[in-house]
Amino acid sequence: MSKEKNFKPSKELPLGFVDRQEKELLVRDFVISNIKEVMIKYGFKYLETPSFEYTDSIGKFLPDKDRPDQGVFSFKDESNWLSLRYDLTAPLARYVAKNYMEIPKPFKRYQLGTVWRNEKPGPGRYREFLQFDADYVGTNSLQADAELCVLISEILQKCGLDKKDYTVKISSRKFTDKLFEQLKIKSKEQISTTLRALDKIDRLGWEEAKKLLGVGRKDKSGDYTKGANLNSDQIKIIENALKSKTSDSEDVLEIIKIFKDYNFENYKLDPSVIRGLEYYTGPIFEVNLNFEVKNSKGQAIQFGSIGGGGRYDNLVSNFGNFNCPATGISIGLDRLVFALMQKKDFKIRTTRPVVICVFDKNKNKEYVAILNKLRISNISSEIYPGEGKLKKQMEYANKIGSPAVILYGDDEIKSGKATLKNLESGKESLVKIEDLSNEIKKLL
Amino acid sequence: MSKEKNFKPSKELPLGFVDRQEKELLVRDFVISNIKEVMIKYGFKYLETPSFEYTDSIGKFLPDKDRPDQGVFSFKDESNWLSLRYDLTAPLARYVAKNYMEIPKPFKRYQLGTVWRNEKPGPGRYREFLQFDADYVGTNSLQADAELCVLISEILQKCGLDKKDYTVKISSRKFTDKLFEQLKIKSKEQISTTLRALDKIDRLGWEEAKKLLGVGRKDKSGDYTKGANLNSDQIKIIENALKSKTSDSEDVLEIIKIFKDYNFENYKLDPSVIRGLEYYTGPIFEVNLNFEVKNSKGQAIQFGSIGGGGRYDNLVSNFGNFNCPATGISIGLDRLVFALMQKKDFKIRTTRPVVICVFDKNKNKEYVAILNKLRISNISSEIYPGEGKLKKQMEYANKIGSPAVILYGDDEIKSGKATLKNLESGKESLVKIEDLSNEIKKLL
After folding, report:
1. Which class does domain A354-443 fall in?
2. Does the global pTM surpass 0.80?
3. Is A66 helix (H, G, I), strand (E, B) or coil?
4. Which CATH class for the A22-187+245-340 domain?
5. Cβ contacts of B45 on chain A, cutoff 8 Å
6. Which residues of chain B does A42 touch, with a Cβ-Cβ cutoff of 8 Å?
7. Which pLDDT tens digit goes with each residue over B332-364?
8. What are the structural domain ranges in chain A?
């Protein structure tokens, strides 16, 4: 916070944060409205917890411990530490504990909200993103887990994806629990470091992730991350286990049986699905897109998952003596939107206003009369909002992508007709004021 | 961050933050969809800046300096300070400076987003709230200022308010500039302390605000705020000026002339409108609700404004050599929603699912078949999502406010009919599976 007199602040954004433009926001609105429709149909309640929580309340379940403050934005508030939520699940557990007596059990809620991760920013890695979460709280029933996969599928199809465009992968934390038993890994820290390393296979590839299973890994920037210190035999056992395409985990088999009742076939059993968060206790899911996605440089990339989730039966009981099994799923909306926008045949309509040009400030009343007529007909429209000659006004209309301009100079006012200029075809026509709305609707 | 073994984290929220329930969120969605419709019609572009900015970039224009860190949440990030935005205007100025060459001029954008203020929390005073902002950037035209008032009016009417329910008050920063000249106040600090004190008249009343114009004020909690150190003559001059119901400010007179072109009459000229933010340079607006609003204790309260704005011609030029006059308006959506929910005749529909009861886990396939039929007909529905006897399932259905339950036991399965129990009337009827959707639609 500089105090210099001629100090000019930065026009840039901190790393890991972005400005989002209209087209992306409209696609996001489209996705959100589909989510809300499906959530109502499936009987979920809409809830919103705030962005800040007591740091203690949301715990430290984050997979990324590269940073001293455990990957969260934390803030000292008088005598307490507050943190921006890093997911929507930990705040839900706090909400359930706080309102345990009042809420129905089971409790089904969905939330849409921004989450923050104070991780090392990098290309395509953001520190703030919008999530959608749906959770079943207070139930052991694996029907809940199964239905989460079914509902995500319905949402994606509503957004225009075909069955071939995505896969819901399922596995179970019980599978890795068994693996760790076999490997004789018992220390909580070693287990969580191993889970985090395994979760990074998708992004780093097996060879790099292997380093994190061993002594550690230096990334491109030179930063060093300590590994899980497994020996080469242990790493070999893991490699083989992840390659197997079956899992005899009972919970997963039960879910697959329920999928049949729903005629849901768009899943894949995949033990290599890990999910980094420590709080999972049973079935875990991951939603992957199968169509080609390009990065900002136009290169086809391994896009990875757009979300996932799983069962977390012990999270609420951190707050006290609650027996409150739960399961949930999260979708990263920014990632889904990014991919959707690249899908062939996916279109979103943006509306740009018709511009009424200003010839004479004293004729404002006449311009406003036209404007009100157009707006009453629900036509996006504006009087040129600045000051300047006609040429500048036309440049403005072209720049904003206006479909047409209306010219209403002295001659036109006398005749009771305005000139409507179609900016796409360049064609001009004289139109009676009362017919303007209809003529404009024809050219939109 | 306690490390004790049996440590139980708090179930409470930090002061100034709240959980929001379905009904409020649905009203908010309704308001937001109205805003978006009006924004498209008026030709504004949808934009979203991130929640974090470099602290330097968004400056220190906050009215509340009671706190050492100027009322913002700030975080040290390696060598830079980041802050959560305290409004949507300062980030817009940063965005405009960053993209000055690319954006159309004038530039009209709207944004919906959470803002944070690290102020002293108190009853009804939150530290996070959702704002809607619409701005005209790069124009001196007072038509822009006038249209902001007109569009807010249209939004409020779309939300169900009558003309008598709200007033747009207008004044001008030029009015206080003149007043300060008359009072011979020149120091920037004294001016901003005076503006903040005046802006608090609504909330504290004149007698308490007067203390802030003088030496200072101790609040109920015992906290002391230094005043502007004006003498009693100066305070008297201010008091008289604020009581006058006219303003000869040229900009305000011009705006009122433009209002006539729009047939907009729902405004009031009011020099006592101050707005605390320092960056205003010309016309200022405030939107007030006129109907009775009660606080959480059921007491009728002086609700005050739901938003406002004004012209800020110098904000973008803080970033460099930009000649970029601008004007904008903000609405506090949480406050508007809070008031709307109390308005007589205002209703919002919440949808709760029909519950299909579970008699036998092995009959899941039959239950899912019914569920799919209902959901295809877009009926909110679910299979009881837990485990337990019929009595518990009925209690659950009543608790969530379900309109009906479906009972499909062995006898019913044999007959091809299900029992539909209306939970409002208590009436039961046997319905053929293929007729269920229609029967349910009748009772909704």
Report:
1. alpha beta
2. yes
3. coil
4. alpha beta
5. 22, 400
6. 353, 375, 380, 382
7. 999 999 999 999 889 999 999 999 999 999 999
8. 22-187+245-340, 354-443
